[in-house]
Every structure is written in C-alpha cells, then in structure tokens.
Design a protein that fits this description.
By secondary structure, this protein is α/β, with parallel strands linked by helices. The protein folds into 4 domains: 97 residues, Beta Barrel (OB fold (Dihydrolipoamide Acetyltransferase, E2P)), CATH 2.40.50.140; 134 residues, Rossmann fold; 102 residues; 41 residues, no CATH class. The strands form 3 sheets. A 5-stranded mixed β-barrel has the order 1-2-3-5-4. The chain has a 5-stranded parallel β-sheet with strand order 7-6-8-9-10, with helices on both faces. Helix 4 links the parallel strand 6 and strand 7. Helix 4 packs parallel to helix 8 and helix 5 runs parallel beside helix 6. The termini are far apart.
Length: 417
C-alpha cells in the first residue's frame, strides 16, 4: 500500500482543486465573520452560512476596486477561485470580486461598468493630474447646497488654509438629474483657472451615492484639465468618480486636508525661515562689518604711509629744486664768464684780422697794376693775361698799357740780341 506524507497529500489535493474548472471563478453567497483589513491592504475574513464556513482572502489589488467597506455581519456574494492553503491544510477562497447581497441589479451594473471603464484605462494612474502647488490660491467646490458637507468644507478651509479663495458651486448630489448637473458645472469650472476642484458629498447608502457612478460623469472627469479630488461619503464608500479622479479622499473634510497645508505649520515654517534669515543677515552684516573695519584700518595705514611718502617727496623735491637752481646759477656764471672770454678773444682776433687786412690792403694797393703804371711802368697783355717774359709772346698782336692809355703792337723780326 502506497504511503504519502502530509505535504504530499495536501499538494495533491491543492493541484486537484486548482485544476477543477467547476471550482474556479465561482459565485458563493454567505455572511462575513472575523473580518480583518491588514495594513498591507489585504482583506481576511470567513464566509459562513448556517451549516458551514470557509476562509477567504482578498488581495489589495482586488480590494482597491471595492465600492464599499465590508464588515462582520454583512451578507455578500463573492466571485472567487477555490484552492487549498497547504501550510494549514485549509480550504480557502481567493476572492476576486465581492458584492453586497441585496443590491441586486444595481450593484451588478456598477461592477460591470467599473470593469469596462477599467479596461478602457479610465482609472489608470498615468492619466491622473498632480496638484501643481502646495499652497492653492483658489479652489472650486462642487457640493450640495447648504449641506453638512459644505459646512464641513468651509470649516476645514477656515481652520487650515484661510488664505485660499474658495468658490462654492451648489450641485445636485442625489437623484436622476444629479449627473447632468455635476457634469455641466465641472465643464464650467474646468475653464476658469482654479488650482483645484473638490467634488464632495456627505455619507449615504449605496443607492444614494449611485449618481457618482454615472458613465458620463466618469468621462467628464477623465477629460478635465484641472486637478480634481473627490470626497464622497465615508471611508468605506467608493464610487466610480473616486476611481477616475486625480485623488480620492475618504470624506469632504479629508479632501480639504489633502490639498491644503495647515496654516499653523506654515506660520511655524515662516517663523523658522524668518529666524534663519535673520541669523543669515546678521552673519553677513557681521562679516561685512569686519571686512569694512579691516579695509578702514588698511586705508588709515595707507593714508599714513601715503602722507609719509608725500612728505618725503616734498622734501626731495625741494632738495632737487634747490640743487637744480644752484647748478643753474653755477652754469649761468660759467656761461657768462665763457661768453665774456669768447667776446674778448673774438674782439682780439677781430682786431688782429683788421690790422692784417689793412696791411694786406696796403700791400695789395701798392702792388696793384694801376699803381705800377703810375710809377712809370707799362704792362703787356696778350689774350687778357699779363705777359711776364718775352718768350711768352706769341707771333700775334698784343696790348701795351700805360698810365694814360694803351696801344696795340706787333712783334717784328730783328737782328741781334
């Protein structure tokens, strides 16, 4: 006889359960007990009826699409896969969807529309807008007129961020005409340049909140260019408007808290900044004052040094001036003396030259041709030159000058000496 270990037996049973199509993707009705939401977002509970119970787990990925918050005692219909939890040998349902029993066709329509819109990408995070500021200056609020939700939002803004201008647009938040009214108002405010839009409503039953599951409303929110946050119902209430909005808040008050800073924190921050700025300015001023004092001290030292240099320059300038004047005086005296000496020498040389000139003039005059003729001599010229010797005469005509005139003569042949 074949012997099996406990783990082998449980593994075999798990494989048989997982492969049985009749036990996968089945609907099971029952009452919730031992309900627990783990901090991870997973849901753990037991589904029971009068005769039996089965353990259930709904992972966060599926639980995030729930339109309500389950609790112990709720009668629900789950859409799940059957399997075996091997470590404990326990039969377990892995819940994919869950519907409150009694909502009937209304909830089925909700689930069908939610699944289709999810497949179309209407709930994708990639399409969601991020709020562009930490300190919104103007916000539009779509909420029921004179409702508790409007009062809660006004109180929250006054308490947290009174610096924001808040414009309220009363809309229908329940009934047949509500989706059209909300869509029309959303399109209007989307073009008005608000930092954020809040779509809010107080708590109510699933049927009361069903106007926020309208497909046209989902498409309108999807097409908006302005950041929108929803605060519809209570924490356990989920609508399709919550899934398509850029952000979902559990309540109207929480919506205000998620998009505004606390003015007390901001004032504390401003005080801290003021203190840091004062310390920084004080430090800068102290540093600049030290530099100023240092530069002033340097400037005074420079002034003293400059004064000493200036006095030294004045002293040396006076010495140079006196030296130059003294040298000029010496050079002037020497120049006067040299000029006097030169004048004396020139006068002496001039006198000598004058005497020489007179002597030469006298000699020249004495030996001039006119004076020679006056003494009874005659001069012979030929071709304009004086003939000093006979052999210089040519056999041509020549001139003989006397004191009182001249004659033309011709040499003739003669005998003897």
């Amino acid at each position: 006889m074949q012997q099996l270990s406990v783990s082998s037996l449980l593994r075999y049973l798990k494989n048989r359960l997982d492969s049985d199509e009749n036990l996968q993707k089945i609907y099971v009705a029952g009452e919730i007990s031992n309900y627990h939401r783990h901090f991870s977002g997973h849901l753990y509970f037991t589904l029971k009826d009068e005769k039996a119970s089965v353990s259930c787990v709904m992972f966060k990925s599926a639980a995030s699409f729930l339109g309500f918050e389950p609790k112990t005692g709720d009668k629900v219909i789950v859409y799940a896969n059957t399997s075996l939890y091997e470590p404990g040998g326990q039969l377990q349902l892995y819940v994919l969807k869950m519907t409150p029993e009694g909502y009937g066709d209304l909830y089925a329509r909700y689930e069908a529309l939610k699944n289709r819109l999810a497949e179309e990408g209407k709930f994708d995070d990639a399409h969601k807008i991020i709020l562009g500021t930490e300190y919104p200056e103007n916000t539009a609020v779509l909420v029921g007129d004179k409702s508790a939700a409007m009062s809660d939002i006004k109180t929250a803004f006054a308490r947290r961020w009174p610096l924001c201008r808040v414009d309220y647009y009363p809309v229908l938040v329940q009934g047949a005409g509500a989706p059209e009214d909300i869509c029309r108002t959303l399109r209007k405010v989307d073009s008005m340049g608000y930092d954020a839009i809040i779509l809010a409503r107080g708590g109510g039953s699933f049927e009361d909140l069903f106007c926020f599951n309208d497909e046209t409303l989902v498409n309108t929110i999807y097409d908006m260019k302005t950041f929108i946050i929803t605060g519809i119902g209570h924490e356990q209430d989920f609508t399709l408007a919550d899934f398509v909005a850029d952000r979902r808040a559990a309540t109207p008050t929480a919506a205000v808290e998620l998009i505004t800073p606390d003015i007390v924190d901001v004032m504390d921050l401003v005080t801290d900044y003021e203190s840091e700025l004062y310390s920084l300015i004080t430090s800068i001023l102290d540093n600049r004052r030290m530099k100023y004092d240092y530069l002033l001290s340097d400037m005074l030292r420079f002034k003293e040094h400059f004064t000493g240099i200036s006095a030294n320059i004045d002293h040396h300038s006076e010495l140079i001036r006196n030296s130059i004047l003294h040298r000029i005086g010496i050079y002037a005296q020497k120049t006067d003396y040299d000029v006097s000496q030169m004048r004396t020498r020139l006068d002496f040389r001039l006198s000598e030259k004058q005497l020489l000139y007179k002597r030469l003039f006298t000699l020249l005059n004495a030996y001039s041709s006119e004076n020679v003729l006056k003494r009874g001599y005659s001069l012979v010229f030929q071709d304009g030159r004086i003939v000093k010797r006979k052999k210089m005469l040519k056999d041509t005509e020549f001139e003989v000058r006397f004191q009182d005139g001249s004659i033309q003569a011709i040499e003739r042949a003669h005998h003897g000496k």
